[in-house]
Amino acid sequence: MNEVTAPASELRQNWKLLVAATLCAAMGMPTLALFSIGIFAPIFAKAFGWSFAAIMGGLALSSVLILLVGPIVGRRVDRYGSRGIGAISLAGLGIGYASFALATGSIVQYYLSWFCFALFGMGATAITFSHAISRNFSRQRGIALGITLSGSGLCAILVKLFANWAIDPLGWRMTMVAIGAVPIVVGIPLILWGFPRRSEGAVASVPESAVSAPAALPGMTRGEAFQSRAFWLIALGFTPIAFANGAPLPNMENILQAVSVGPEDVVRITSLMGGFILIGRIAGGWLIDHFWAPAVAAVLLLLASAGCMLLAQDQITHVQAMIAVAALSAAAGMEYDLLAFLIARYIGVRSYGAVYGILFGLFAIGAGGGPALLGRAFDLAGNYAIGLICCAIALAVAIVPILLLGRYPVFETVAPE
């Protein structure tokens, strides 16, 4: 393969995979619930008398399941590929989400729906989608991951617009059924169309000298990865990032109301979250292809920290609210593709699924637990100030282990584990 034409040919050769992975990521787990729960939370609170902490607790439950089951799914994806596992999980995810429409006021039943949504949708997460991209892209891996995982921004835009439009004419129950049908009706055909079969998958990062051995993969074994300095630095950095940047977004509607932003402005600003996430995903992917990824991460984390401090004020203007939401959304947009990119560059793709499954699980614990903790802080104090200040500090501290990763290592090409 010619070095000059390689980057363009990666995108041309794998365009079907890129389209399918992006759209499937938009309807995957936990994305679908993460960006819709904020719309239904006030309805649940009014209808059933649940606290915001209890409602957001469903995200925490799904995060625990990701931590426990994600590594198993990652190993299965390493072994069997992304296509079949992703298709089956999209079906389970859609059914699990639609089951929220059966809510009767029992919090146990509500959490059971979350359990089904997370467990059966586990193969429709970034573990699966980033695995396919990392295996088939090398020189443009960052932008490919950014485009794929920008699906969450697409979801944030479309699911909020659809739910806000559909709840009045259809009712919240039928709206949830309609949202749950999308992964089944749209997602499964997409993944079967765009994802290569196991025998067809390329490993773009393998050099020409290894073409005669298509099973060869660069990187560490599972054992080497879990004992490596890079693994623990990534874990130390992304756990506080997940808590601190994941906490405000699902609570954003209520946060903006608490700082005296008008109801109409709240809808306008939160509807733009998806756009800012898309910008963070794609621009961040381009940046980490061209600049040292930890430095790019440090800049975005500082901006997100400043956004939390803005939202911690007693009252802010419309412009300040836009700036804060833009900073937090852009940083959130880059989180998953940055995690995937750092794993591929510092640990390799040899045991990518297993390693990503564990780190994604740790990240999901933070992303799922953060909204519930921030909701609890609001329930106790009547405002989000203390919680948001803690988020700002955590984002700034997380920069240190990310920068300590150092230069990108160079891996020898070896047979898969």
TrEMBL record:
PROSITE patterns: MFS. Keywords: Membrane, Transmembrane, Transmembrane helix. The chain crosses the membrane at residues 17-44, 50-73, 85-105, 111-130, 142-163, 175-195, 230-249, 269-288, 295-313, 319-343, 355-378, 384-405. It holds the Pfam family MFS_1. This is Major facilitator superfamily MFS_1. InterPro entries: MFS, MFS_dom, MFS_trans_sf, Proton-linked_MCT. Gene3D superfamilies: MFS general substrate transporter like domains (1.20.1250.20). It comes from Rhizorhabdus wittichii (strain DSM 6014 / CCUG 31198 / JCM 15750 / NBRC 105917 / EY 4224 / RW1). GO terms for molecular function: transmembrane transporter activity. Residues 17-409 form the Major facilitator superfamily (MFS) profile domain.
